């Protein structure tokens, strides 16, 4: 069974069509990067995959079901810059939200162990008592990834995970995403993601241009260079 199946997907907010005839599939544990210009429809596509928006036409299946029916296996990482820093909440509490999001108000010993293990795996165990507002952008992003992983998802969807983070933090976040042994959908402005072990690249600008692995070699891939991506990369040759 495919992790994601999108067939003939169309979407519009008001009159203007935002996404037109989008088709793609993603297998279990694959990694897709969704790139494209501002306003091209990347976040809208992510919201459709998450079940936050309904297609105008077409079909989306996440592990064989509608996104809403399978929301318990979808981890979502919003942009860390949207985090409300006025709430004096600790790292542990934020990550624990991932265990409590199924109508459960109290955590048990097992939940605590799961959260501890994730904090350890992500190298942020020492931050567990720190307030979110006192963390760097990169640390905050790791906490949001940890929260998404706490639901034990089969698939994780991330919106601009490296935005507003310094270069060292960006590398750490990309390393972390690469190391995850689950299906990954990452919307990004950051073309460095193209140099990572992605299985597919979707360039979204109303329509989608899909590039598939097995191993991507963007600079040498003439076909991909010739399409709109070259404008996006803002270079004359398709080097990154
Ligand atoms: N809630 C909304 N109502 C109406 N139009 C919207 C809404 N959200 C987004 N749009 C419009 O839909 C288009 C696609 O927006 P979207 O946020 O999906 O693009 P994006 O590729 O994620 O852009 P960016 O890279 O700037 O985040 C844009 O023209 C945007 O103005």
From the 3D structure, determine the CATH topology. Rossmann fold
Low-confidence residue ranges = 234-240
> How many beta-strand segments?
9
CATH superfamily, by name, is P-loop containing nucleotide triphosphate hydrolases
Let me know the average pLDDT. 86
Structural class category: alpha/beta
CATH architecture title = 3-Layer(aba) Sandwich
Identify the overall geometry: globular
As a whole number of angstroms, the C-alpha radius of gyration is: 18 Å
Description:
With 240 residues, this protein is of the alpha/beta class. It has one domain: P-loop containing nucleotide triphosphate hydrolases (Rossmann fold, 3-Layer(aba) Sandwich), CATH 3.40.50.300. The protein is built from 7 helices and 9 strands. α3 packs across α4 (137-150). The protein is globular, with a radius of gyration of 18 Å. The structure holds adenosine-5'-triphosphate. Residues 13-14, 18, 36, 38-44, 189 line the site of adenosine-5'-triphosphate (ATP). The site of adenosine-5'-triphosphate (ATP) has 12 residues, from α1. InterPro entries: AAA+_ATPase, ABC_transporter-like_ATP-bd, ABC_transporter-like_CS, Metal_Ion_Import_ABC, P-loop_NTPase. Keywords: ATP-binding, Nucleotide-binding, Transport. This is Metal ABC transporter ATP-binding protein. GO terms for molecular function: ATP binding. Pfam families: ABC_tran.
